[in-house]
Amino acid sequence: MMMAPVPGAVFVDDDFTPALETLLPLCLLLSWIPIVYNLVFLLVKEKESRAKETMRIMGMTDLPYWLSWFVFYTLINTVVTTLCWGVLLVNVITYSSPFYLWMFFWLYGEAVFGQIIFLQALFTNSKYAGIVSTVMYFMGVLVNKLVSGNDVTRISKVLASLLPQVALMQGSAVFANYEGTGVGLDKSTSSIIYYGYSFNTALAMLLLDFVLFSLLGLYMDKVIPSDFGQRLTPWFICTPSYYRCCRKQRQRAQID
Predict the structure, then answer these.
(1) N or C: which end of the chain has fewer CB within 10 A?
(2) 77/215 Cα distance (integer angstroms)
(3) Count of alpha carbons within 13 angstroms of residue 179, beta-carbon side
């Protein structure tokens, strides 16, 4: 009688997994540093030179101003995201869905734009704005050290992911685990919780970070005391007169 082992699923153990878990988010963080520095510098420079106030005097509202910056940044973000994603397609992304990784990188870039809006509201001097903002941007990595253990609760990791840098590193750890074991990251595995975190959680938190930091930055840009432009009261969003004023201006523009 002949005996043979029962065939089972192939087990893949890639030694590159620990390196991928660390190097992937680090390379992405470094890729966006020049963008953070230059964009914060340019935004604060516009305030410092009173170019922003001049455009407001000429009739430009906040919506087209920030929308133009958003479109400009999104084009840059899409190019950088595609380049980083294209590099990983060469012998790195083997088992996972490439689209999930591209969306992960792109949402991180958009979340960084929200941080840029938030950071530029804190400065009135372009000379220091770019440098200090870059340092603050990179310091977000240290927060991930507090929630990087396997015994950390899920709620702690989710709350820490209110910083895009933490969401990036947590999502990269999930991706590295699935890719390194040969399972791959796709629609069926992206929602599975791995040590209190899932890849879909990272995507959702990056989208939330973009909205949250953008709204907070736009709010602070109107209320923080500054030498440039008129400041509003902190509770202006609760006053009906603010919205009535905007509505009257729009109606007057349509009539003209």
Answers:
(1) N
(2) 20
(3) 26
pLDDT in tens, 211-222: 999 999 988 887
Q: 178 near 101, Cβ under 8 Å?
A: no
Distance between CA 203 and CA 97 in Å, rounded? 14
pTM of the model: 0.84
Judging by beta carbons within 10 Å of its beta carbon (0-12, 13-18, 19+), is residue 172 exposed, middle or buried? buried
Q: What is the pLDDT of residues 226-251, one digit of tens each?
A: 666 666 676 767 777 666 655 555 44
CB-CB contact of 180 with 20 (8 Å): yes
Residue-wise pLDDT for 98-145, tens only, equals 899 999 999 999 999 999 999 998 888 888 888 999 999 988 888 888
Is the pLDDT at 178 greater than 60, yes or no? yes
- Going 224 to 163 to 129 to 51, the CA torsion angle's sign is negative
Angstrom distance (rounded) from CA 67 to CA 63? 6
Contacts of 207 (CB under 8 A, 6+ apart): 107, 110, 111
* Locus of tokens 């001097």: 125
> Which of 78, 85, 101, 128 lies closest to 185 in space, CA to CA?
101
